Amino acid sequence: MATLESLQFDNSFARLPEAYYSRVCPTPVPDPYLVCYSAEALALLDLDPGEMARPELVETLAGNRLLPGMDALAALYAGHQFGHYVPQLGDGRAILLGEVLNAAGDGWEVQIKGAGRTPYSRGGDGRAVLRSSIREFLCSEAMHALGIPTTRALAIVGSDHPVYREDVETAALVTRLAPSFVRFGSFEVFYYRNQVEPIRHLADYVIARYYPELKSLADPYPEFLRAVALRTAELMAQWQAVGFSHGVMNTDNMSILGLTLDYGPFGFLDAFDPGFICNHSDTGGRYAFDQQPDVAAWNLTRLAQALVPLMSVETASQAIGDYPQDFGRAYLERMGAKLGLAPGKDAASLIMDVLQLLAQNHVDYTIFMRRLCDFDSAIGALNAPLRDLFRDRVAFDAWAARYGAVLRRQGSNDAERAAAMRRVNPKYILRNHLAETAIRRAADFRDYSEIERLHRLLARPCDEQPEFEAYAAEPPDWARTIEVSCSS
Ligand code: AMP
Ligand code: MG
User: Fold this and answer.
1) Is residue 448 part of a domain?
2) Is the Cβ–Cβ distance between 435 and 131 less than 8 Å?
């Protein structure tokens, strides 16, 4: 177990040439206090949980003091935002403190988001508010517990320092961990500046550290692009299967490691609605739920273009050419597992048809999938708890009869299928209203217990937790007024 003083820093990104970042120190915040932390994320750094009680740690996560061995910087990147190229973005409010090397030999970059202005802040204040920090903290840890690749969140530190958004709010910093925060936009910035060497050097760095199996290839770049496309396809399949909508799929928010990155106005589906738009500012629905797989493909094309200086256009387009099939296969696999069906034509048509029924009947996606685990294949259409979710019972009965028949034909055992389905159909997800309740208590009363409760609940999303039954319910009426936007 490490103490603050015994953490080992590697700082591989900081050892790259300065073209990729600006060295910058966090701007201190007054009187920081610990809001919450994730013991599981702490363990990634081998940090002793007892260290959380030390004021030095809170001061460090607030950006008020650096530890020996840290090398603070803000990374440069660009990106396509809502379809338009923006030549200079970069960490406008996140500062990479350093990369911790744990005992297992894994490197974890430690980044504090909301750490003050950097050379990439443009007009922004470099801060993040408590509200958005709570959402990012809870969602990254919840996604991890769901088995979905994501950046992690170690802690939130708050300060009463005022931050001006639509209203006056208070500042907070989320400590994020990831093997790397390199984005598609980290490559795009050099492509649009016609700088080939920085593209090659960054690709070599990412390959050597994160795609080491490709390192020895004579020409690793096309395989690298192919590997990123595959990870992205698998990530999209997981988002679609769980009903997660990211909200701002700009290329600067696309991880080169296929991680869920930059939690902003994200949302989980309540009632199944393919056109669901979680970001109140996304009036055109560019990033609507059902657009995500195609947007990822478009974003991959932007990455492929940025890598064209390292390969021919034809090679680049071939390297991402399997994305549609990879996504389709991964998606059908995940959805088949959620329905307890062996892969094949029957599964595919049952999946498509049930999603259409859910949409037409405004059925809660998570509740339906969880109840489906207990489907009794002998009584088919008469499964009352499921049937009650639908207005159009006739249509549901017809689907349930087909589903039951396929299950029987596949020789599916109800008890075994139920157990397997419960492992892939979460009972608890971070619904907006749950996050909102935790936010209001924290902001209005400095009461962080609801964050803690949600964090604990969502660490075991697929387990029955009877004392938390109410957290699995459909959103209450007041939740309709919650609006989330890019403001954070
Ligand atoms: P996001 O939509 O959060 O991914 O942010 C897009 C870009 O705006 C990134 O370069 C951020 O660093 C930057 N940004 C967002 N909010 C702020 C802020 N309050 N101050 C400075 N830069 C910001
Ligand atoms: Mg971003």
Assistant:
1) no
2) no
